Amino acid sequence: MPDSTFPIPSERPRRLRRSPALRALTREVTLAPAHLIHPMFVHEEATDTPIASMPGVSRHSLDSAVQQAGEALALGIRSVILFGIPAHKDALGTQAYADQGIIQRAARAIKAAHPDLTVIADTCLCEYTDHGHCGPLCKIHPNEWTVDNDPSLELLAQTAVSQARAGADIVAPSAMMDGQVAAIRAALDAAGFPHIPVMSYAVKYASAYYGPFRDAAGSTPSVGDRATYQMDPAGGYREALREARLDVAQGADYLMVKPALAYLDVLKLLRDNFDLPLVTYNVSGEYALVKAAAQLGYMDERRTVLETLTGMRRAGADAIITYHALDAARWLAGG
Asked: By its UniProt entry, which Pfam families does this protein fall under (predicted)?
């Protein structure tokens, strides 16, 4: 017993934590497989290729992509997002908007096999250009190159229309070109796809956490970097709000914050200022760090992943793109 002079607490929050059932009864945040979006890399090869920097993730053949999409659906994951790695790359990224491009073929095959699954197409050019940037390059100084913004809009619009035509349920522009949402919305409407939503990578940072993705997609820039169009990590809240407001005004149906973990404050900022569905991207570097720590025995992978994803939901995410999706869905099913 405590000393009689020590104040006895009149409020006891621990009462509500005494058992798993009591804790479950008062939880404010839920995490379910339906909140997760499973990202998949699809290439032209006939077999899968493991990605060394992302243990457990592979570049999929078309058949394998269809199979894994079905696995995701069976686990209660209702959405996948597709990233394509073409056999041929060029300066204009022509395979991004080719009728028989790898993403177009994958979207058709997955929708034919799993019509109830939502297929999201990443709408960008970086995986398809031979220089690794998100649009055609132009020289602005003898030793300085940048992405030519306005010609890129036309190519991104063509890409979105070709993806919608192939059966994609949502297009997700990630190039961070000024005006990309308006260009894509106008092109979709003109092509007879006014019903296709635009999931905008509205607030996307020039992040070190993308390293494993660039390995997976073969999209490391051959010249310069992406800091002239992706956002500065130290840019602050005003820039984030401005980017999001521009995309809302241009017709975005979803807003996204990428990456997730280092930007949960930005995610909460958007949740407090906009009423559109909000997505966050638990990116490749975040995934790889957890995998590496778990393999070394430094962290409990299951608990770490579920805590991290729950934190993203608590910060305001309606949906989370995560390479942990399949494992997380299995863990959630197991209680």
From this structure: ALAD
Q: What is the pLDDT of residues 234-287, one digit of tens each?
A: 999 999 999 999 999 999 999 999 999 999 999 999 999 999 999 999 999 999
With b meaning 16 or more CB within 10 Å and e meaning fewer, what string describes 76-92?
ebbbbbbbbbbeebeeb
Candidate list 89, 111, 204, 291, residue with the active-site label? 204
**Calpha distance 189→195 (Å, rounded):** 8
CA 197 to chain centre: 15
**268 noted as active-site residue:** no
Q: Which of 111, 258, 268, 291 is catalytic?
A: 258
Q: Which amino acid is at 168?
A: A
**CATH code, domain carrying 253:** 3.20.20.70
Domain that holds residue 91: 32-333
pLDDT band for position 117 (cuts 50, 70, 90): very high
280, 301 contact by CB (below 8 A)? no
For 43, the token pair is 């290439």
Q: Is 21 inside a domain boundary?
A: no
The yes-or-no answer on residue 204 being catalytic is yes
Each residue's pLDDT tens digit, 20-47: 999 999 999 999 999 999 999 999 999 9
Give the chain's domain count: 1
In a domain, 45, yes or no: yes
Cα atoms found within 13 Å of the Cα of residue 112, Cβ hemisphere only: 11
Cis preceding linkage at 259, omega within 30: yes
Q: Say how far apart CA 10 and CA 211 lie, in whole Å.
A: 51
- Is 11 contained in some domain? no
The neighbour count for residue 9, using CB atoms within 10 Å, is 9
Is residue 325 within 8 A of residue 308, CB to CB? The reply is no
